[in-house]
């Protein structure tokens, strides 16, 4: 990054919390110039098999994190980004953050995570549940069934299904699998709000996660009567997650002396209200107007879109008034696995000589559309939208002795584009137009993948003008919280950027993909909508086998002990 000049310039810091690391970005308020950045890798990463420090093994589909990793991003990435920028800290007027979601943790009343309470350290439910913790699917199924049985008015705002990733499913899982941890949890908070609490010693909630992940619609959460019908002990859940609710771009508080010492920033500067990594990116991509769908593509993909009115879109993650920006109805959808799928193939299935994204992309790029004879379903990590079922699994049809690694790789790339087209068509069929796409995230650099998306969706595709879309979006919100701009729309116009129409659909390829997409959709509906539940049965058989193996291991250890 380049050093800055001009003592009169003002700067803000955006901090983007991802799945494996956190990034800090120093941004000039006047024009959004990015002048310094740094990344800090989480020490614990994703905790999926066993709790740290001699803790117990974890069941299938668990994904936890250590909140100390989040504090370490403030201690290491923010000072390093400042040093990289050359900015005098006195010129920084605000800090904003964004987070993966739904990533939630139980805490004491003062925000202390329960996993940091010594006697709860080895209780898995005391830890942060990462967004891709999918072990609460059965709880989500009950939440959905009861909501439909009672005709709860909010269920339609979420496409008819609440996800296993969200607050209520994860909270119900804690109650029913570890009632003591549930009882000790005085607060149940999104990591997006918890990190803001750490920064300014003020507990707040943001309208984005409250609406999309916390089932808050029309000014209220699900009723106590409904929660009691799920489980009498769940009646108090809303009291654990409700808190001061603020709009995006508002000031949550002032940077505390403790957080100033961590970051090297001046105490008292503005701390913006928490936000979600995908939603905050719409501002940096100058995509706050209706009809422009932003796809934030990395390990997974989140799709966000502003509309002028509320509509019930089957399988969507939700529609929230002001959920992306004030004055619009924000829609969210997503795919639970995208880059993770490609990474799985490179790590575990590609033979020597082809086991890199670069080589496989090069080999796959020369193929005509459909030449590999394959169709894949992109459910390696379940389906977030539109089926909202994380027990679904991946599928490849058409394999022969002539199939080569690049064929499978291209089919996997295409499968994720077909999944995005399913989401777009659900929006359009519900009366929410999608005119074009803007892609952000690490996968935007794969030119073959981007052209496939343009061809499959038959829409022009722009690329965000920043490699750090979420961090820039958080910085934009920090500038608004600090009073540098009156609202996020005007801050986005000045500080965001996008390269318009970089990829245009090829008419011949678009027609060829129409035929493949018809096959994808037939498989999608057959395996995802009740035609054949073999994927769900296989998941149940796997879980039974793993549980039995774990029980045998415990018996042996008890005998030895």
Automatic annotation (TrEMBL):
Keyword vocabulary terms for this entry: Arabinose catabolism, ATP-binding, Carbohydrate metabolism, Kinase, Nucleotide-binding, Transferase
Catalysed transformations (reactions): L-ribulose + ATP = L-ribulose 5-phosphate + ADP + H(+)
PROSITE patterns listed in its UniProt record: FGGY_KINASES_2 (PS00445)
InterPro entries xrefs: ATPase_NBD, Carb_kinase_FGGY, Carb_kinase_FGGY_CS, FGGY_C, Ribulokinase
Pathway info: Carbohydrate degradation; L-arabinose degradation via L-ribulose; D-xylulose 5-phosphate from L-arabinose (bacterial route): step 2/3
Highest taxon of source: Bacteria
Sample GO molecular function, one term: ribulokinase activity
CDD domains named in the record: ASKHA_NBD_FGGY_L-RBK
Top-level enzyme category: transferase
EC number, UniProt record: 2.7.1.16
The keyword Translocase is annotated on this UniProt entry: no
Domain Carbohydrate kinase FGGY C-terminal stretches: 294-482
NCBIfam families xrefs: L-ribulokinase (TIGR01234), PRK04123.1 (NF003154)
The family this protein is said to belong to: Belongs to the ribulokinase family.
Protein's recorded name: Ribulokinase
Provenance organism: Micromonospora reichwaldensis
């Amino acid at each position: 990054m380049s050093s800055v000049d001009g003592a009169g310039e003002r700067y803000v810091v955006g901090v983007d919390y991802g799945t494996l690391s956190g990034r800090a970005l120093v941004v000039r308020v006047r024009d959004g110039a990015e002048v310094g950045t740094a990344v800090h890798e989480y020490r614990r990463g994703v905790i999926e098999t066993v709790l740290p420090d001699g803790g117990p093994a974890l069941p299938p589909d668990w994904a936890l994190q250590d909140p100390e990793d989040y504090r370490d991003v403030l201690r290491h990435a923010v000072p390093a980004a400042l040093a990289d920028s050359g900015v005098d800290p006195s010129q920084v007027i605000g800090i904003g953050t964004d987070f993966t979601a739904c990533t939630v943790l139980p805490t004491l009343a003062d925000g202390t995570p329960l996993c940091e309470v010594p006697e709860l350290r080895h209780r898995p439910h005391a830890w942060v549940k990462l967004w891709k913790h999918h072990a609460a699917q059965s709880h989500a199924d009950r939440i959905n069934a009861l909501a439909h049985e009672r005709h709860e008015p909010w269920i339609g705002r979420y496409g008819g299904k609440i996800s296993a990733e969200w607050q209520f499913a994860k909270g119900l899982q804690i109650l029913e699998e570890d009632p003591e941890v549930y009882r000790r949890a005085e607060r149940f908070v999104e990591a997006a709000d918890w990190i803001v609490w750490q920064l300014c010693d003020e507990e707040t909630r943001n309208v984005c996660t409250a609406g999309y992940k916390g089932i808050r619609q029309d000014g209220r959460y699900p009723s106590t009567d409904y929660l009691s019908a799920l489980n009498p002990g769940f009646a108090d859940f809303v009291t654990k997650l409700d808190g001061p609710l603020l709009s995006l771009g508002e000031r949550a508080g002032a940077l505390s002396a403790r957080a100033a010492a961590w970051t090297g920033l001046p105490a008292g500067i503005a701390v913006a209200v928490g936000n979600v990594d995908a939603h905050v990116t719409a501002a940096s991509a100058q995509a706050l107007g209706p009809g422009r769908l932003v796809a934030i593509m990395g390990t997974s993909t989140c799709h966000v879109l502003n509309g002028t009115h509320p509509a019930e879109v089957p399988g969507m993650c939700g529609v929230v008034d002001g959920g992306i920006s004030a004055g619009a109805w924000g829609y969210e959808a997503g795919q639970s696995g995208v880059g993770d799928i490609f990474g799985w193939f490179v790590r575990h299935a590609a033979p020597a000589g082809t086991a890199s994204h670069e080589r496989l992309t090069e080999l796959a790029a020369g193929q005509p559309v459909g030449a590999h004879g394959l169709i894949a379903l992109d459910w390696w990590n379940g389906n977030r939208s539109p089926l909202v079922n994380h027990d679904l699994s991946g599928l490849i049809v058409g394999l022969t002795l002539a199939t080569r690694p690049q064929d499978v790789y291209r089919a996997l790339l295409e499968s994720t584009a077909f999944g995005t087209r399913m989401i777009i068509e659900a929006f359009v069929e519900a009366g929410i137009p999608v005119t074009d796409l803007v892609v952000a995230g690490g996968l935007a650099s794969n030119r073959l993948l981007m052209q496939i998306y343009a061809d499959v969706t038959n829409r022009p595709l722009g690329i965000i003008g920043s490699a750090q879309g979420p961090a820039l979006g958080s910085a934009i919100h920090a500038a608004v919280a600090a009073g540098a701009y009156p609202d996020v729309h005007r801050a986005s116009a000045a500080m965001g950027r996008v390269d318009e129409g970089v990829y245009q659909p090829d008419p011949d390829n678009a027609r060829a993909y129409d035929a493949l997409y018809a096959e994808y959709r037939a498989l999608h509906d057959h395996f995802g909508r009740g035609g054949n539940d073999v994927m769900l049965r296989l998941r149940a058989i796997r879980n039974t086998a793993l549980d039995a193996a774990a029980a045998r291991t415990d018996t042996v250890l008890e005998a030895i002990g």
